[in-house]
């Protein structure tokens, strides 16, 4: 159970609810089924096929984040789970039933009834990578040298995912150069070239890349940016550039069960970032991480209250290049690395050997407007609200239109990964 305390001018508790339940009480949102037993009505937002698919792959993303975070408890985590999900979903086009079902369960496809998963995925990709979103995301399947690939796999792959597979030449230097050139083309040069060598034993390599530079709806005044303390814990601090706004308009709530203050800031292109800030710098982030689901984030998006606050937030420019192979193996996908059936791709036995992830993420003072939109009327508070991201926090970058999780980060030290 979770309790999201929304600060009205009365300072009252607005509601209690379950992070898994859309209804705010056992009676709300329920209707009897044919047997007379109450069943929960689906939120209209999730009845839209592309939104429902976005929720499914986002839940995969939260699972991936939890595994990655638990493996790196003292390090920053930066992921674009959608790009990894896209690579896996594309690979499932070449899988026979048992292997396909394993991938689909990990992506939560087994919980949605959609006869055209891949067609809907194309809609999702088109929606979240529209030019106004400022998101660049791509995935690619790379196969071992001399592999003969069936055209019946290539055609739907290109149709739904806009990508063609690549076959390695066997020359590590040439293969790395070709992959780097592809990444540079897809990301418009926003991600640095890799220096990681390609292992010689590759059978299937999945590449997932993404880059995002946020533009706030309301820009920060760069003259108010200054070096301030970021508390790594109760004893250690570091100086980082902190942006500030003494009269920012944001959406806010206090989750008493998770002991964290939640804030949402709008970005251009119908996107937003939700911040989870623990009440204490030394607080374990695990409880917050365990609560993250598409439904929980959707509930938060509906319930946060518009307020005026004194805001400070670190300038951020982070990148990550590495593997998520072990994380996926821990997510009940081990069969893909052992004995999968990809006979829709080729007649030769092949298996997944490596999953590479390269991402870049940044925000600075840039914004579309110098003042807040007049349409946003903050709730009048009886006290001044402060929201200072000057200690470890979690952020979620979400597409408002579809609900898709695009980026997620655990920032223990904003100076870098």
TrEMBL record:
The Serpin domain extends over: 62-414
Provide this UniProt record's keywords sorted from A to Z: Signal
Q: Which SUPFAM superfamilies match?
A: Serpins (SSF56574)
Gene3D superfamilies annotated for this entry?
Answer: Alpha-1-antitrypsin, domain 1, Antithrombin, subunit I, domain 2
Q: Where is the signal peptide?
A: 1-19
- In which domain of life is the source organism classified? Eukaryota
| Listed InterPro entries | PEDF_serpin_dom, Serpin_CS, Serpin_dom, Serpin_fam, Serpin_sf, Serpin_sf_1, Serpin_sf_2
Question: Family, per the entry?
Answer: Belongs to the serpin family.
What this protein is called in its record is Pigment epithelium-derived factor
The scientific name of the source species is Galeopterus variegatus (Malayan flying lemur)
Ranked from the top, the taxonomy reads: Eukaryota, Metazoa, Chordata, Craniata, Vertebrata
Underlying gene: SERPINF1
């Amino acid at each position: 159970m979770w309790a999201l305390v929304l600060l009205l001018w009365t300072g009252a508790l607005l509601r209690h609810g379950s992070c898994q339940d859309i209804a705010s009480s056992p009676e709300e949102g329920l209707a009897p089924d044919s047997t007379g037993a109450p069943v929960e009505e689906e939120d209209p937002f999730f009845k839209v096929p592309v939104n429902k698919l976005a929720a499914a792959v986002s839940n995969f993303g939260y699972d991936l984040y939890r595994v990655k975070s638990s493996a790196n408890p003292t390090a920053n985590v930066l992921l674009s789970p959608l790009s990894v999900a896209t690579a896996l979903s594309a690979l499932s086009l070449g899988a026979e039933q048992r292997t396909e079902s394993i991938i689909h369960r990990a992506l939560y496809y087994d919980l949605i009834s959609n006869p055209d998963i891949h067609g809907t995925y194309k809609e999702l990709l088109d929606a979240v990578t529209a030019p106004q979103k400022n998101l660049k995301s791509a995935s690619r399947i790379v196969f071992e040298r001399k592999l003969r690939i069936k055209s019946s796999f290539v055609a739907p792959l290109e149709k739904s995912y806009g990508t063609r597979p690549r076959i390695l030449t066997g020359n590590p230097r040439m293969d790395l150069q070709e992959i780097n050139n592809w990444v540079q083309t897809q990301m418009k040069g926003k991600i640095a070239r890799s220096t990681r060598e390609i292992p010689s034993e590759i059978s299937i390599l999945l590449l997932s890349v993404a880059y995002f530079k946020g533009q706030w709806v309301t820009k920060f005044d760069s003259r108010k940016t200054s070096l301030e303390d970021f508390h790594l814990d109760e004893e250690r601090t570091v100086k980082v550039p902190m942006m500030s706004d003494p009269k920012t308009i944001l959406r806010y709530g206090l989750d008493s069960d998770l002991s964290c203050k939640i804030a949402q800031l709008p970005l251009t292109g119908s996107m937003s970032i939700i911040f989870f800030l623990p009440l204490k710098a030394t607080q374990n982030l695990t409880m917050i991480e365990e609560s993250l689901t598409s439904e929980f984030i959707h509930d938060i998006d509906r319930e946060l209250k518009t307020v005026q606050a004194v805001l400070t937030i670190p300038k951020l420019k982070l990148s990550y290049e590495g593997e998520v192979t072990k994380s996926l193996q821990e997510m009940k996908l081990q069969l893909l690395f052992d004995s999968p059936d990809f006979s829709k791709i080729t007649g030769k036995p092949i298996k997944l050997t490596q999953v590479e992830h390269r991402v870049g993420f940044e925000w600075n003072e840039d914004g579309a407007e110098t003042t807040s939109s007049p349409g946003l009327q903050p709730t009048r508070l009886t006290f001044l609200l402060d929201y200072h991201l000057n200690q470890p926090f979690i952020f979620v970058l979400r597409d408002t239109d579809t609900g898709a999780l695009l980026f997620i980060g655990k920032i223990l030290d904003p100076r870098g990964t």
